[in-house]
Every structure is written in structure tokens, then in C-alpha cells.
Amino acid sequence: MIRIGNASGFYGDRFTAWREMLDGGELDVLTGDYLAELTMLILARDRLRDPNLGYAKTFLRQLETCLGTALDRGVRIVTNAGGLNPAGLAAAIDALASRLGLPTRVGYVEGDAIQRPDALSANAYLGAFGIAACLDGGADVVVTGRVTDASLVVGPAIARYGWGRDDLDELAGATVAGHLVECGAQVTGGNFSFFTELPDGGHRPGFPIAEVHADGSTVITKHPGTGGAVTVETVTAQLLYEVGGPAYLGPDVVTRLDTATLRSDGPDRVRVSGVRGTPPPATLKVGVNNLGGFRNSMTFVLCGLNIEAKATLVRGQIEEAVSKDGLEFTLARTDHPDAADTEAASALLHVHLRDSDRVRAGRAFSAAAVELALTSYPGCTLTTLPGDATPYGVFTADAVPQDAAPHVAVLPDGQRVPIAPPIRTAPVPEPGPDPEADPEAGPAPRSGTAVDGPTRRGALGELVGARSGDKGGDANLGVWARSDAGYAWLRTWLTVERLAELLPETAPLSVRRYELPNLRAVNFVIEGLLGAGVAASTRFDPQAKALGELLRARIVDLPAAVPAEVAQ
User: Fold this and answer.
1) With the CA atoms of 52, 414, 147 and 56 taken in that order, what torsion angle do they form, in degrees rounded to the nearest 10?
2) What is the pTM of this model?
3) Rounded to an integer, what distance in angstroms lies between the CA atom of residue 329 and that of residue 314?
4) Could you point out which of 413, 436, 461, 472 has its C-alpha 20 to 30 Å from the C-alpha of 298?
5) How far is the C-alpha of 96 from the C-alpha of 252, rounded, in Å?
């Protein structure tokens, strides 16, 4: 096997994780994922200020603390921290290694940048074969730009086992491994619905390791003595994170998530096997960031009686002061009746303004809000002083042919190795029949499980876990049951219509529903919930991270025959 660890799930993750992972036990490769859709916008703005930037600067500081250790122990480093400027980061690493007196062979992958003159950035999601070529070329450190997150694991596995383009099942298995560890501690108990059951109560989960075997099967684990846990449920939660249907599209393979089998392999070890792959699509996903305009926000505190009337008064006053265009009002009823203190008696009125005019969205708006302090509702107060507008970005996704991105591996000796696109591709799989609309299309409930019968009132989260996240303007919400009996009930009970009842904001939106019986799970893709995407969203939970916990908190009629129990 090859032991591939992860030390970063996003730009801003635990700074010391690189050191922790290198000191914690044996590794062959250590990866770091820094690129989210919002991160690409941040890096694009950095590059506007300084063309030499455009990469994750934090990684250089982290590498300075542990490069010598990695070299001494033969641990190779693979990261997408290159962002929009992988060549620039590679040069910076060369300079760092020279200053530290540590001879280091650095390779990098480029070709993801797509020419879009009207965009801040446009980058294709490349695959893993460029990373493998750099490792085959002797690189100690491999830097990439926009590759798929899973490619950071798939690339080293390709280099170790010599997989080719037609080894689809193996590539798919490694893709699942990469998806599981890409978000760092989320697979070892971070952000876990049942965190109170973890040995350390979820206090400081360790970072994950994928032991990838030659057949593509994997054991997910972590270093001994680190916090959190690796269980079938923590792995299930991460496998459901930010995915759509069972066919998980990638540039090297389409991974069938509905074929993955999870089973315990000992304490803090979960084996993932049986994953099947099919040929990739003929196109690459392209993430495009554009400047959407400018925005500003002010929040009014409304205390006591007549909350709705107070909010109506403020709305009329703000609209009269700056006009209605681009304004958005959200009243959060955080107030409690007959409260004994001001905070418990108060609601919050969030007022957002988005405009292409920086002046109107800036002090003209925020000062107009502050000017109401003595001329509005009783008890008028705001949470902030007036401030200037800030630019926001809009993320969109489209596609280009696989050969439109000149995928190139630049080896440590400077040799440039073109990476040919896959010869065998297939049309993007269409979503299968919705088992909700056609019960015969889905798996039948397992025998001996109770679906109908007496019920009891309780929180949905007593029986299910959930994990949710964002993909552009869409949100995904994965829900899994803790037992076979729970899944037999869940798959028939939690329909799109039921979801709309429990989460009313989803009712007017297009919602796709998928069943994953191998995970005892259903997954929803809620289109347009996040508007123009995270960077532009004014939603209280702009990345939909808490959507799953909101669902779990709803009080519903639970089947009395299905106990609230620890997973079986």
C-alpha cells in the first residue's frame, strides 16, 4: 500500500497540521488542499495587486517548519497551493529550500488556466496524471494549480502502481480515497453530527491517512493518539459531502459512489472497497470567477414589542434614503417573549445592499442606516459603525473539451511533459429514475425492518446524521440513517415534498434526490439555494454548512419501532 496523509482541507486550516502529520507516524506522501471556489477569488484579487502572487502564501510558512523533516523521512509533498500561479509557488519553494540549505526537487503542474478576457480567473479542473509524472520525475514536492481535490491522492497512487487510463476501477477507488481525505479532519470526526459520541468529544480531531492499495481499495485511518475517530459513520458523512448523484464526475474517471462498500477494519480504521469506475466525460469542468459588484451590510437590533412593525419602519426609511434597488432585508426572530435581558428580547434586522456603484453601496448606504439612530423605532441601535463597501465575486461553472486545457507536468529538471487527455470518454451519465417517483427503481426496504406503525415525536437527528455544503449556487444535503431499520423508514419518508415542509426555503427551488443504499443515505441537490454562489451570498449560512443540522433539529413523527441508537 501507499500511505497518503492530508494536512490541509482549506486555505486557513490548522497551521500546525503539517508538523503534526510528519511527526505522528509513517507516511509516504503528505498532501494539502487549499483551493475552494471562494479561495480562487481571493487568489485572483491577490494577483491583481501583485502578478507574482496568486498562490496560498500560508503554505510557504508551513513548509518552512517541516521541509527538512519531510526530506529526511522520504515523505513527498503534493499540494494545490499553487492556485493561480503554480510556477510562482514552485520558484518560491526553490528559494526557501536554498535559504534553508535543503536541496529539494520541485515539480509543478500547469495548464488549468483558461483564457477568458472578461473574467478574474477561469480554471479547468485537471486530473491526476500530471502529478504522477512529476513524482515519476523525482520530485520531492509537487505543486499544482486547479486540479480536482481528489487528484492530490490519485496522482501519488498512479505513480506508485503504474495505473493507466483504462484502470478505471482502480482510479475510481483512489478518487473516493481522495474525496474522503481532501477536507482534512472532516473524515476523522470534524463537523460530525454525533460529535458527543467521539472519544474526545470532538475536541481536536487528528488529520486523516488513506492507505491506498494496488486494486484501488483503501483503508481510512489516522495517526495513533490523535483526537477524533475514524468510524463507518464519520467516513459516510464525508463521502456524502458536496456530491450530487451516484455518478461522481472527474477528469480521469466517473466514480460510482453507489458501489462503495464501507466496513470497520479495526479501531480507527475503515476499509473502502468495491468502487467501480466508468470512462470520464469528454469535457473538463471550468470554474469562472467574475467581479459581481460591491456590497455592504448593516444590522439593526429590534428589542421588545412590535418587532414586525419596527422592521417595516426601518425598511421604509432605508428605501427612501437610498432607493430600493439592490436592497435585501432579512428579519431574524431571535427574540423570546417576556425575556429578562436585552439580548434575549431582541431580533436582528439584516440589511444588505449590492450594487455596481461602489459609492452607493459604501458610506452612502451605511451612513444612511446610522442616521436613523434618533429618528426611527424605540430602542434603535445597530451592531456596527458605518463602513465602506467591499467587492464580491460571482462563481459560475461551464465546460471545455478535455484537450482545450494544455495539461503539462514541469519536472524538477525543467523538462516539460505534456499530459495527453483520455482517449476513451463517455457521455455524462444522466440522472437515473427517481425512486421517489418510481418505487420500483429503488432498492426495496430490507426484510424485517419497520416502516409503518406507531410513531413518537422527536428530533429527526435522533435517527439520522447529515452533512451539507456548497457547489457554486447549489447546496447539497446528505442524510444517512444509523441502522437498517432507520434507512428503511428514511428512504420512503424523506421525499422532496417532505424536505420542502421541513426546510421551507427549498420549496420554490428545483431539488434533485438520490438514494445511496450502500451508505444508508439519501442525498439532495438544492439548485440555486445560495444564489450567485458563496462570495455573493447574503444568506445567514452562505455555504449551507449548517443546513443538515437545521434539518436534524426539526421535530417530526419518528417510527417508534426504530430506537435512537448508536450506529449498528
Assistant:
1) -30
2) 0.92
3) 10
4) 472
5) 33
